[in-house]
Structure formats: C-alpha cells, structure tokens
Automatic annotation (TrEMBL):
Locations listed in the record: Endoplasmic reticulum membrane; Membrane
Domain of life the protein comes from: Eukaryota
Protein name: TMD11 protein
Organism: Alca torda (Razorbill)
Alphabetized Pfam families for the sequence: EMP24_GP25L (PF01105)
Residues covered by the GOLD domain: 8-106
PROSITE patterns attached to this UniProt entry: GOLD
Gene: Tmed11
Lineage: Eukaryota, Metazoa, Chordata, Craniata, Vertebrata
Keyword Transmembrane helix (UniProt): yes
Family listed: Belongs to the EMP24/GP25L family.
Coiled coil (UniProt feature): none
Length: 196
C-alpha cells in the first residue's frame, strides 16, 4: 500500500487467543528525479504499534526501513496494527510518497532449515510431524474462536428478532387503542351536535 511520509496507516487483524503473529515489511521511497520508487529507503524507519481489542498497547517499537515484528495475542478479537514512518521533516516538507510492502502471518511457525539438515531423516520426519501437530492445534484453536463468534452473533440476532416482535405487538396495540378512541370521540361529537 502507499502512504504519505508522516501518515499513519492501520490494519485490523482478527486474531484468536495465544496466537503468534509475525509481520514482515519493506519501505520504498518515491524518487522525484527518477520518477520511481527506490529499492530501499536509507535513514527512514517505521514505528510499529499493535493495540489489543481492549485498547492495550501490545507492541510499540521503532524498526528500520525493512524488518520483522512479532507478538502473541493474549485476547481474541480485532488487533490494530499501525505503521508510521519516523521522518524528521516538517509536515509542510514531508510530501514524499512511500510504498510499504507488508506480509502478516497469523499463527505461523517457521521450520529452521539448518536444524532440519543437521539431523538425520528420522529426526527430520519427527520435527516435521511436531510442526504439523502444532499447526493442527492452531487450526483447532481458530475453529473454536470462530465458533464462539458465530454463537455470539446468533444470540444477538435472536435478541434483535425478539425485540422486533415485541415492538410490532406494542405498535398494533397502540393503533387499535387510538382507533377505538377516535370512534368514541366521533360518536360523542355526533351525539352532542344531535346528528345521530
């Protein structure tokens, strides 16, 4: 995505409880003379802030023009990941465009290839099997989280439907009572004017 030099951009990521989130980014600065984005942005860093659903700051750190950040969620819900350059230019002169490449991996566990190559084939299979078991646990945890969200949504929908039904009954009773009152008032009016 593109961003201004002093502009903060935020991304919302829905993360289950106790889940590792790894983010890789790279910043490129627009060169006015070459009319293209430079491959790197020397001297420019990114300030990364991660906020939990309860508005608690989980991560707040300054990184270089390219880097990796990671955090583990303690609460399930929408985590807000914000990126902002650490440009020291005044706002009036900070008109340069930035291109930010961002890759966020939720629940990712990387295999260390050097460790795998150093061990024999049995250990390699065992290590990959442990990795697969860990991924299955993560998928199960994510399914449970989605099940909880679906259950909460269903309860909210049922409460809303119930409220709508009662509101319709109340409206009907009000309309009937107003109709009866109007008929009675008209009848009394006609009787008082001796038209009936």
């Amino acid at each position: 995505f593109h961003s201004g030099e002093r502009e903060e951009k935020c991304i919302i990521e829905d993360v289950p409880t106790d889940t590792l989130v790894i983010g890789n980014y790279k910043v490129q600065r627009w060169d006015i003379h070459k009319q293209e984005f430079l491959e790197s942005a020397p001297g420019l860093g990114m300030f990364v802030t991660v906020t939990t659903p309860s508005a608690e700051v989980l991560l707040s750190k300054l990184y270089g023009p390219q880097g990796t950040f990671s955090f583990t969620s303690h609460l399930s819900g929408e985590h807000i990941i914000c990126l902002q350059s650490n440009s020291t230019r005044f706002v009036a002169f900070a008109g340069s465009k930035l291109r930010i490449h961002l890759d966020i991996r939720v629940g990712e566990h990387f295999l260390d290839e050097s460790v795998v190559q150093a061990k024999d084939k049995v250990n390699e299979v065992n290590f990959k099997l442990e990795h697969l078991i860990e991924q299955v646990h993560h998928i199960s945890k994510e399914q449970n989280y989605e099940r909880e969200r679906e259950e909460k949504f269903r309860k909210t929908s049922e409460e809303t439907n119930s409220n709508i039904l009662w509101w319709a009954i109340v409206q009907t009773l009000i309309l009937i009572s107003i109709g009866i009152w109007q008929i009675k008032s008209l009848r009394d009016f006609f009787i008082s004017k001796k038209l009936v």
